[in-house]
Amino acid sequence: MSVAVSGGHSAPDGLPRHSARRAAISEATVARLPVYLRVLNTFADSGIATVSSEQLANAAGVGPAKLRKDLSHLGSYGTRGVGYDVEYLVYQISRVLGLTQHYSVVIVGVGNLGHALAGYAGFGTRGFRVVALVDADPARVGETIAGLEVRHSDELEMIVKEHEVSIGVIATPGSAAQDVCDRLVSCGVTSVLNFAPVVLNVPDEVDVRKVDLSIELQILAFHEQRKSLATRGAS
Amino acid sequence: MSVAVSGGHSAPDGLPRHSARRAAISEATVARLPVYLRVLNTFADSGIATVSSEQLANAAGVGPAKLRKDLSHLGSYGTRGVGYDVEYLVYQISRVLGLTQHYSVVIVGVGNLGHALAGYAGFGTRGFRVVALVDADPARVGETIAGLEVRHSDELEMIVKEHEVSIGVIATPGSAAQDVCDRLVSCGVTSVLNFAPVVLNVPDEVDVRKVDLSIELQILAFHEQRKSLATRGAS
DNA sequence: ACCGCTTTGTGCACGAGTTCACAAAGGGGT
DNA sequence: ACCCCTTTGTGAACTCGTGCACAAAGCGGT
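YS: structure for the whole thing
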């Protein structure tokens, strides 16, 4: 749903990682950790020092058992009879997610959506920094958005190298997306967030996550129809 | 990912639907159908009349077996030795997804993101029509975006009733999201697309899908870290 | 009318993810 | 020091989704 959901990652890679101190965290769990993290942060802001799995699970919209199993995959950071220390858990999840490092992000395509993304506060949070905005349209080049000057997409390779960009955000029309993606990948970007309505083709080592509005709407439409058929059928 | 992916839908509802002529389509399959549909449309535009499961699967980024199984869940619409008729399959998937009906959409929150959503072409396609834009800020009320006048959120209930809105899009700040959601639900909206970074609480019969940028970024960060640890560990 | 080639539809086995239920573990009061 | 209450961490059963492999089914050429 998210856009749900939906990542690149092909192989369940059973390769023996360097020395895997932990049994490798499942994809489903990784997708939920950011939710827990957000909820924990709101708890911390409210001055709450400790939470039980049940409280946390309720706030995150999952079952308590699932939550405990998820957390157990990253270590034994709870106290039996008490719960989890909020601050400590925030730190541990941040560490596992890699948010203690910093990531440079480039946004390609400054249309309506790219504009909104550039101004999105979520980037500012822990670890992510938008280092450049890029567009193919010369008319937009030079414009300043959210404190960044829009640069021409010819400079894309240079920008990626210069800032050691690791995450590329594609907010172009669908027709340009694969080309932009190829260029990002060819100069070393290994993670892509794709907003264009196309299926991107990338080598195995590159992760792609897609956010697709019209897919989400169509999934909702399916359930809407299902519901209206159900009530009509019951009459 | 999707935005992951991530829907409301709680119970796997084993209730005997009205007369369920088909065995009910799995959630995972439903999430892929829109992708198939899009690919099929590009094929149709290229004048291609027939596709094999392998061609379609490649273009959609899935395995051929999975694709065939997905399609088999909605009927036997292929010809052995030949493949699938593009136009017919487009029609069948559209029908199953409920895109032959029309859905009225209201967008709540006209900030950067709401602005972009209002102008998004994806809404115009088959079945979805944005009937109103709503914001709580009086300064924005009256402004015209994409041919629609922004109205004050006090009028939300009236608008929903008047236009028989079935899908609500929440593009407000997180602090307002739950309140807006409650109001939408209380006047009959049964599908919500949530862009606010909060976990919405809704009754079981309401479907929520969330699109969360910062979650997607954090998932990418996890894999980035994993990759950099792997290469560092191999040295 | 038959034969061989291609491609679908699906039974089956496997693996991933979820849920249940409970033993182990810690805290606090007496 | 002991006991009771709460809550974690996890083994085990189960459900769901995926991928393989192959039989059934068309089509076209002879």
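YS: worth flagging: The first strand of chain A starts at residue 3 and ends at 4.
IM: good catch. Also The CA atoms of residues 1 and 219 of chain A lie 8 Å apart.
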